[in-house]
Specification:
CATH architecture: 3-Layer(aba) Sandwich
Low-confidence stretches: none
Shape: globular
Oligomer: single chain
Mean pLDDT: 91
Structural class: alpha/beta
CATH class: Alpha Beta
Radius of gyration: 17 Å
Number of domains: 1
CATH topology: Rossmann fold
Length: 229
């Protein structure tokens, strides 16, 4: 199992089927999807790249593939062969990718590139910068979402408040035997400022809140870059 697959599986242990956590995750991701439509305004003919799809199949995962009405216009990209994903979404194209490597697509190959809850898992700053640059390279419009560090409960561990600071989060993770989440190779807690700092100079990007609405403590952040005209 790759690091990405391990993190993916561990994440959904915190949102088990039919739990309150899963129901809240579904609500948040439905709102993220609505924000995607608002920002990107996809046409029926647009091609969409969805980077970092999950091979964990449940109601909270892979919202784009579950809701978008033109699945044949989607190319999903993920680590490994994703047998369960491909069986669940047979009309969606699938392309395997390598972690922390350039995406295997030509410049501007897609109209839209999107990722949900992936950027925080790719590693430290250099790896995050590569991820963002590659998304911007392969598509005219880019929509990226991440969990908001300042949501009252940390998404992957359900630890309240202690995740607002790196040191306090590391202590809480160690105390609760969840130290893997304090490793930047598995998780980098994301703030609005950090997300903005990853945008290349000269890129006109819009950053805001989405998901469960709590103002600056909303569950998720989004960044949109591109031209819908």
């Amino acid at each position: 199992m790759t690091t990405a697959q391990y993190v993916d599986a561990k994440y959904y242990q915190a949102a088990t089927p039919r739990s309150v956590g899963e129901r809240l995750t579904v609500i948040a991701r439905d709102r993220i999807y609505a924000k995607f439509l608002e920002c990107c305004r996809p046409a029926a003919t647009d091609t969409i790249l969805d980077v970092g799809v999950s091979d964990v199949i449940n109601d909270a995962a892979n919202v784009m593939e579950r809701k978008y009405p033109y699945p044949r216009r989607i190319t999903a990209a993920g680590i490994g062969q994703a047998a369960a994903f491909r069986a669940e979404f047979p009309d969606v194209g699938y392309a395997p990718i390598e972690a922390n490597k350039p995406l295997p697509f030509a410049d501007s190959a897609f109209d839209i590139a999107t990722s949900n809850a992936v950027l925080e898992h790719v590693g430290g700053r250099d790896k995050q910068l590569l991820f963002v640059r590659e998304m911007l390279r392969v598509a005219r419009r880019v929509f990226i979402t991440v969990p908001n560090r300042f949501f009252p409960f940390e998404h992957h561990t359900a630890i309240p408040f202690m995740h607002y600071g790196d040191a306090s989060f590391a202590v809480a993770c160690a105390w609760l035997n969840k130290s893997e989440w304090a490793d930047e190779n598995n998780l980098v807690p994301m703030s609005k400022a950090r997300l903005a700092s990853l945008m290349p100079a000269g890129i006109d990007a819009r950053i805001g809140y989405t998901g469960l609405a709590l103002g600056p403590c909303s569950s998720n952040l989004y960044v949109f870059a591109g031209d819908v005209n």
